[in-house]
Please model this.
Amino acid sequence: MTTRKLLTSAILLATLFVLMAIDAADTPQTSNAREEIVFWHFWGGRDRPIVEKIVEQFNASQRQYTVRAIAMPGSNLDLKFFLSVAGGDPPDLLNHDDPIVADWAHRGVLTPLDELATADELKRLDAWLFPAARQLGTYDERLYALCNGLDIRALYCNTTLLAEHGLGLPETTGDLDVIAETIAPSGDAAGRRRMGYLPDPRRLWAWGVVFGGRFANPQARGLAERRSTRRRLLQRSLGWPTTVVVMGLASSRHSVRENKHLRGRRFRCSPTAGTRWSWTGNGACATLPKPSRLTSLQPFLFQLRPAEKNAGWVNGNFFVVPSRARHKQGAWQFMKFWTGFDGHEAEAAAACAAGGWIPASQQVVDQQAYQQALERWPLLKTFVRLASSPDQIPVPSLPVASLYYHEVVQAAQEVLYRGADPATTLQQAAARVRQRLQEVLDEH
Amino acid sequence: MQRRELQLGIAMIGPWLIGFFVLTLYPFCASFYWSFCDYDLLSEPRWVGLSNYRRLASELASGGPFSRALANTAYYALTSVGLSVVLGIALAVSLTWQVRGRALYRMLCFLPTVVPTVAAAVLWMGLLDPQQGLVNGVLESVGLSSQGWFQSTSAAAWPPAWPGDHAGRILGSKDGLVLMSLWGIGNLLVIYLAALADVPKGLYEAAELDGAGRLRQFRHITLPMLTPVIFFNVVMGLIQSVQAFTQIYLVSDGQGDPAGSTLTLSLHLFLTAFKDLDMGYASAMAWVLFVLVMLITTWLFRTSRHWVI
Model:
């Protein structure tokens, strides 16, 4: 083959490839000319078939839209999403569960739902959602995300075990350390053989709220006010809780010392192990963390105390629509279908019952399918009841919420793993968050 | 004819050139520009001059995450490269001995190298689990203290943060990473074995006639003759360990946990760019990292004339 022929062939091949690529991009991807909604999610394991079924049901119910669900690894979902946004080809819909709504909304990445929903729908949605679900999706008094499931935590205790060691119910986060140290003293060369309570750096979020702590000043509302006052309010909302958290962490380090500021006016039930609601194929159970030598532990006797106030830290799954999404209305229709809003409650209840998920609305909870699930797994009732509480508090809706969440966890790790001074650590963390907040506010 | 050959040559290397310009040169230059900008990936970069570099300097001075990442990276790079050289040479020399099943031993030593990084990381996370891991089980069975591994901030080079609680546990997350890096020593082994095969047999015969024992032969013949490949492996190992990411990301829960003890420069860079959306600052970090690696490599080259034969 001559050089000329070789070159000509290469050019022809390249041209053919480019033409095919252009053709593929222009061709509607559905044969029946319905609009395709590209939906990114990170559901896997036993949840994946349920998600696929929801998508199938939606597609079967539709003549205008069809959803194409794409499962992504949750660990780098953000990275892929940002690259798709930067590249101008974001998905139409994304499901997430990290505190990113305020960050992304502030940067203009998300579509406010008032651009998709009618005024009437918004008004009904406001009443329809649990307060926690509403808070999770709100930034600057606008709804940017639609919650489709809540992640609720509860504290349980083994009162028999506590009584055996002369311990009462904990009233502060510091009491958790007293429980841990009393039941399973440290200093044993072979390591702890049992666990009274398993310390976790994330507990400042998980239990801080339960013991009366807050991470944002509830009075510092009104983010929609003028920008000049807004900045002051945002900073104040960071300043106030830091004091509370510092005290909480100090209490956990010097565990014997009680802290009057964190005494449990709001605590609901007593912990010896942190639990999260989970579901197995045969029934309900509360999963325990896996402590050292689990076999040598006595069985935990779960005993739920009546709630005084159903306070807790909450997060959940939610849908967001990128501001540059192509098919926003289709995405909105699918969001409504999944969450159950606007007449789809029965289907949503069936899906939530299948997945053991906690719905975002009482109206879904009230459906027959979900009530039957609650009868099968009575323990789930507690979590569902907590979900409706106005005292379930998410990470504050600030444009640096992700950083705030991460810094608090890091600060707790510094204290727990390195023995750092709690007050100093948290003050440094707060300074970093404030500095970043200032930068973000200055940028936009 | 010459022109036609040139055209053909360009056509042949065209795909590579496109890849180089688009995937290497452009990001390289762009990251330099972004290091002087405030850039969140979602909006246009905004020029801020040396602000990002000043921030790096202040973080370094105040002991912030950047200084911790730098210290962790230095620990990981020095320990893993140092141990890989020692272990690599020791293994290579022992694999030259004429023993039965030598080929099998060589294959077994190389085999871990072909295991994908992610699979190896998951395997090591299981092996080094402080409660249920096999390694701690073996340590306990021979009367040694179990170690904290990936759930501890301790490091062999520094005393544990909580002596009372650790009770003899001196190895932590960074040491676990070093152990993992030694798992992939097979590549170095191949190079050392090739270098050992090149050592002239006459040198050993002459040394033997002079009455030199095995140890002396190793010290005065083998080791000096291996210095060029040691130098090569040290340079490559340092660069690779500074850039190590996948296994660290996996074992540290993607955050450098626990308490930033596995936060290396590459991980910090990734988190800054794609979690905090601070691409400008991350770019500045990348350039500092690049200059650092360049300086170390230059220093190694300059000092090599004193110890490389």
Chain B has one domain: 63-307. Residues 69 and 264 of chain B are 4 Å apart (CA to CA). Chain B has a mean pLDDT of 89.
